[in-house]
Amino acid sequence: MQTTNTPLPNSRLQIEFELPPERLTRSISDAARALSRQHRISGFRPGKAPRAIVERVLGASTVLDEAVEILVQSAVRDAVLEQDLAPLTTPEVEVTQAEEGKPVLFKATMQIRPEVKLGDFESFKFKPEVDAVDETMVEKVVDELRENEAHLEPIEGRTAQNGDYVLVSFEGTRDGEKFMGGSSEQMPLILGENRLYPGFEDNIVGMRKGDESEFDIVIPDDFQVEQMRGARVHFKLKLKELRSKVVPEADDEFARSVGKFTDLAHLKVELRKRLEENALDRARHQFADKIIEYAVANATVDVPDILVDQETEVIHDEMRSAMTREGITEEAYLKVIGKTAAEMHEQFRPQAEQRAKSLLVISEIAKVKGVEVTDAEIAAEVVQARSRYASDRSMVQYFESERGRNYIRSTIRRSRTVEQLVDEWLAANPDAPRLRHIEDGEHHSAADTQSAGTAASVEVTEPDSVPTAAGAPEA
Hints:
Elements: E1 2-8, E2 12-19, H1 21-38, H2 51-58, H3 60-82, E3 92-97, E4 104-111, H4 135-148, E5 151-154, E6 165-174, E7 177-190, E8 212-218, E9 232-246, H5 252-257, H6 264-298, H7 305-325, H8 330-337, H9 341-347, H10 349-369, H11 375-388, H12 393-400, H13 402-428, H14 450-457
Antiparallel strand pairs: 1-2, 2-4, 3-4, 5-9, 6-7, 6-9, 8-9
Helix pairs in contact: 1-3, 2-3, 4-6, 6-10, 6-13, 7-10, 10-13, 12-13
């Protein structure tokens, strides 16, 4: 097999192939056997019909087309492996000669991983910055714990005021007609938070449990629901429950109730220790981010559009997932910000390009540093993915696929590379803070993250995926 490579703009590569005639002859025989297994040919068992009979029944062109397809796939796969290429797309093939007895000539054009020229990524002058922990921060956490342990008690002998927890039923009308979202039999509210309509809760302040009231409010012109802006709405309301939040005192009894602490002082000591550990953990994250920013700023790489497109979709999908967790639809959000889905998608591109560049740079540093991930580690992650996503077959199939395994490999490899850069700097600077390792303690699976779910949903193709004997990357 003879090949000639021609680099094309935007990290594309054209390979011209010339295969000897005998390879096509063998491939035609293989194709005839394969087709005879797939089609019933009278008088012959599956796979046993001679080539001449198969060509007479199915047509010589059919057998030739099948043979050429088999031959092309095999040749491209061999070239990818021999040249250590990392195609990002399925090759586009153009066959220019395929006649038995003559060399097979064809071209394969593919998007490949771009060349990354690293600059300096280790001689930076910045250092880790660890936030100091003071008593105010400890007291804040104590107050948060107290809030978590708070309970509600019925209010007797006074009227509702801001900060109270109420349960109301109400019915709203606009021009005498009910409207969507204007009525409820049981609506919990915290007075003063203004969760519903502007001015609505002001009319509850001063009421007692069991009281009923009627009032009008005018919806302001900047209200999020456009069709309600400027409307005058009439409400009938009943206050069904009135409660106040009771927060426990910060004392020894409270400390013992939230954990294995002897007293409040013991609780504060442990909280300070955890805050200091978190500060070291956060400092390590931030330091690692600055190292990558430094490396990316000093590197040269032309990021292909396909990787920018993919990262744009990943960012968009991450935003959709975040909104879903908050109970917000993308349609409602777009209405509020006054953009179309396409416009919002486009605004993610600069961030996507930077992320794609970072992935490529980290992958190149991993190559320089010799960071590897074993097949056994990948297999262990796939086992975890099968367990975690047992009820989601599509997710399991993604992580079992070559593409999903490449995602796992690349994720671990990049994380390991960044951690190695941090550890090497710490080893060379013994006077620096002993930053807690972000992977200390519990193991975090590469498939057990929100990013993993996003990667599966958009079928991410990793820019540093490694070609295998199984074939070129999937379409």
